[in-house]
Fold this protein.
Amino acid sequence: MMESLPTTVSAKSDRRGRSSKSQNNSKPSLILAFFSCLAWLYVAGRLWQDAQYRAALNTVLKNNYDQRPKVLTVEDKLVVLGCKDLERRIVETEMELAQAKSEGYLKNQKSVSSSGKKMLAVIGVYTGFGSHLKRNKFRGSWMPRDDALKKLEERGVVIRFVIGRSANRGDSLDRKIDEENRATKDFLILENHEEAQEELPKKVKFFYSAAVQNWDAEFYVKVDDNVDLDLEGMIGLLETRRGQDGAYIGCMKSGDVITEEGSQWYEPEWWKFGDDKSYFRHATGSLVILSKNLAQYININSGLLKTYAFDDTTIGSWMIGVQATYIDDNRLCCSSTRQEKVCSMA
């Protein structure tokens, strides 16, 4: 019994030694596992970051691809060249048309009278929708009608009442004018002009353009519907001027520009006429005569010409910028008391 005791003590001592070694070996394992976790987290983070970089790079590349110039095929180049050539030809055609207009090559023009001479004049008498009685008065006095009107045209003089269209196209006002024209055949209807008192300055552009497009004459005459003409006296006056280019003929005047709003002759753009507020020299609106080349100038440039509150000053403003010869003829002062005039106030 006493001999077995050292063996038991020795066994217990061995177990304590192994337990101490096991505890010493577990510490490095924990440290290694900790660093392994850190390494894994680092690698995972880098992989995630690289994935973000790749996604951003793909987006940039895609945007650059979409914005880069596309490669044109042969067909595309031909289309582009064809469009440029068409545009060039359109510009050339417009220039040729303008030149043709300026030289008098206009469609459907009557250019000579029965005597073989170039037509002398186109006389446009302004009228409105409510002026039926005035028109009949003129037809019964100085203005020929029916066969007499045709014979006058054979002499080289055309007379037409000039009117635009109603603001309500095709209404009873338009229909009455159409019916009257079918019966009398003495209207020049301005299809693109709206007939209204405030539109009279624009009516000048439409009248001269339509007249020069329809008839090739020496002169184009605008007459208000409150004027009676001595027709033979007018024809004689124009005959003496036949062949004169650049003629701007009328009863010339100038005067103060009215700046007070609400006044009868108020000019909304008065500030354009200088500090003296005075109109330039111009023919009174009752009767204005333009030679062919000046009427053509209005026709060709009608889209660019500025209008003012009144038609006489409007025409005068256009004449300032061209080589016009101002002819002040007292016989065209319709409101004067002189005896040798060719017009009078109706």
About this structure: The radius of gyration is 47 Å. The chain has nine helices and eleven strands. Confidence is low (pLDDT under 50) at residues 1-6, 104-108. The first helix runs from residue 5 to 67.
